[in-house]
Amino acid sequence: MKPSAPERPVRVGLISLGCAKNLVDAEIMLGALLKGGVEITNDPAEADAMIVNTCSFIDSAQEESVDAILESAAERDARKPGQGLIVSGCMPQRFREELPKLLPEVDLFMGIDQVERVGDLVRQAVEHRRQKVEGQQPGAKARRGTATKGKVQSKLAELDKARPGAAHDDGESLRGKPGFGRTRQTVAPSPAVAPVMDVTVRPTYIPDYGTPRFRLTPRHFAYVKIAEGCNHPCSFCIIPRMRGSHRSRAQADIVQEARQLIAGGCRELNLISQDSTY
Fold first, then answer.
1. For residues 94 and 109, is the Cβ–Cβ distance under 8 A?
2. pTM, whole model, 2 decimals?
C-alpha cells in the first residue's frame, strides 16, 4: 500500500486597494496566513481563496472595490468555481448590513478586528463555497453583468447620502455614547444561501511590533501604523464609522518596530494613522 501524498497547503491570493493604512492591514493578513501554513500566490487561478481588501472612503474608491470584487467573482466562476471569495477592509465595516444582499457572490465578509484571524476565516470561506457549489443546480451560471455592477454602486451611493459622515451611525448620533456599537456582528447563514459576515461594529484592533507581517513595500521603506481610528465626528468624514474610535500605540512599541525595520534594511519609515494630532 502506497503512502498517501501529503495534503497541499491552502493557497490564497490577495488584492489590496486604498490607502497605506489598508495596505498595512493586508500585510498583517499575509503575515498571519504565512504563520498559519497558508501559501500566498500571485496567480488567481492557483488560489483556493481570493481576498479583496477594500476601500470605501470616497465614491471612486468604492467603485474600484466593487469592480475588483465582481471581477474576482467572474474569474472564479469561469476558471475555478470552488474558489472562496473574501471581502475585507473598510467596505464591510461601512455596509455590513447591506453587502450580503448586494454581493451574494462573496463567501465571507470580514472586518478590521478580524485581520489576525484571517487563516480561520479563509477556511470558513472555502468550506462555504464548497457547500454552495454542491448545492447549485447543474448548469447554473453566474448572473452578474454591467447593469448589476451599476446597481450595486448606485445602492451604495444612496446609502452614502442617507448616512453621511461620522456623526451618525444607522441614524443614531454617536456623540456622548462612548463604546456605542462595539459588539461583534457575526452572521453565519445556512450553507449556500448567503455570505458569512464576521465584522465588529466599532473596531478596536491595533497591531504591535510583534504582529506577524509580510511587507509589500520595497525593501528600503516601510509604513509604520502609529494609531488607528478617529474621535472627531465630522459631518463630511466617514472614518470613525469604519475604523472606530482613536487608539494609539505606545511610544516604546513604535520605536521597537522601527528598530526591527531598520535592522532589516529599511532606510525610510513612513508614520501613518487616520489622526496623528493626539
1. no
2. 0.86
